[in-house]
Specification:
about 270 residues, alpha/beta, Rossmann fold, 5-stranded parallel β-sheet, two-stranded antiparallel sheet, 7 strands, disordered N terminus, SGNH_hydro_sf, SGNH hydrolase-type esterase domain-containing protein, hydrolase activity, acting on ester bonds
């Protein structure tokens, strides 16, 4: 009896030993990301959608933010709250997102305050991600309310060049601070060209639609984890916007649309 019991225990130990040897190592992934920005990040609340992707793929992700409507990096710096939050915790990534039209009238401020935020992030050993935002989907209606005719004309002339000038600005900032551009605008352009029926903008021509935020979260997921999500939730619950954080919306993406989004990011058919 003792012999059989000893043999049985030996077999169990061998089985557990083999299982432990064949078990895949835990994937080491960044765990904490902090967003600084405005309504381009807050509309449909990008952090919630990104978090949903992480959970669907068994990745632990802690997300913090300092988001305020109509607020540029210079104003975030002057308010001081974002700086305090960066210093208060250890973040793997700090994301900078400036005002949508910063390339037309405050490019130097983007560079100056982007560098200041970058210095603080680096002191905390955080990697810097630069949210390269998209161009407007045409000239917004409020531009016609400008009383200064020269200013109105300048803005209307800027919009067709917005894609190139915004990309160039973030590329220049990335070079100056050794940061990583998250190429959201470039991905949006590819998807717009391949599938123009997928509305990424809201009717105001500026902010992201729920589909636009979903697509943006995919681009960020790849930037953070170095890969696209293997499990892609097609229904996501997220907060509506920065003014209505108590309200939630359901973002539902058809499988065919999700496939087109993935193809636009990779540049390769699935």
């Amino acid at each position: 009896m003792k012999y059989y019991l000893s043999t049985f225990l030996t077999v169990l130990l061998l089985i557990f030993g083999l299982l432990s040897c064949t078990q895949l190592p835990l994937e080491k992934t960044p765990s904490k990301i902090f967003f600084i920005g405005n309504s381009l990040t807050g509309n449909n609340y990008l952090p919630d959608v990104l978090q949903a992707f992480a959970r669907a793929n068994s990745k632990e992700l802690v997300i913090g933010s300092e988001l305020k409507n109509s607020t540029a990096l210079i104003e975030h710096w002057q308010r001081g709250i974002a700086r305090q939050k960066i210093i208060a915790e250890k973040w793997d990534f700090v994301v900078l997102q400036d005002s949508s039209a910063s390339a037309i009238d405050q490019a130097e401020k983007t560079l100056k305050y982007g560098k200041l935020f970058a210095n603080i992030a680096k002191q905390q050993n955080s990697r810097l991600l630069l949210f390269n935002t998209w161009a407007y989907n045409g000239i917004p209606g409020w531009v016609d309310s400008y009383e200064d005719e020269q200013e109105k004309a300048a803005f209307k002339a800027f919009v067709p060049q917005m894609y190139q000038e915004t990309n160039a600005l973030y590329a220049k900032l990335a070079q100056a601070v050794d940061g990583q551009v998250v190429p959201v605008a470039q991905a949006w352009r590819r998807l717009n060209q391949a599938a123009p029926h997928i509305a990424l903008h809201t009717p105001d021509k500026i902010h992201p639609s729920p589909q636009g935020t979903y697509f943006t979260a995919l681009v960020f997921y790849q930037a953070i984890f170095g890969e696209l999500p293997k499990n892609l939730p097609l229904t996501v619950i997220t907060r509506r916007n920065l003014k209505k954080m108590h309200e939630t919306i359901k973002v539902e993406i058809p499988r065919s649309t999700a496939d087109k989004m993935l193809t636009a990011i990779t540049g390769k058919p699935l």
